[in-house]
Amino acid sequence: MVVSLFAFAAGIFAWTLVEYAIHGWMSHRFVTFATALHQVHHRDPRAVFAIGAWPPTAAIAVLLMYVCGVTLATCFALGMVAGFALYELIHYRLHFARPAGRIEMRLRTRHLAHHYALEDRCLGVTTALWDRLFGTEPPPEELAALAPRMNGIEPLAGGSNAARVSALMRAVLPRLGFALRRGQVR
Question: pLDDT tens, 22-38?
Fold first, then answer.
């Protein structure tokens, strides 16, 4: 049990590097399929960048559990999926909600600095670890100077494009044998 939990936690940690690679390298540093998608998010932060990845990610996770059962590899993979889910939740909150505490305030300041002042810096959304390691973390005094301006940006009003995935899931799940009632899978 402890080893499985460790594998799950290692998967969450591994996700943070994947997050940095997708956001930093594939969306900013190099021109890839992700670049154009991510530019849409920079033009309109309501356009959630990774929202289309949820249906295949969920399908792979379910298939992995069905085929392989609970193994260290599946615990690690599910940790990565959980990391992805946490990233999505945090990223959404950074744009659409007031910070709930100091950590979220720091993450929001870094992320909004990335959006509005330092597009090639602050590439990690859930952690600054990889920015520090790969040299994309701005000096603390630069972030401190930007903080009042970033903290003055109001959370976005209205919704995001997340409703598209919800609609897709409502359309697909019944075909897979799941019945949806009041937004819950039964």
Answer: 999 999 999 998 899 88
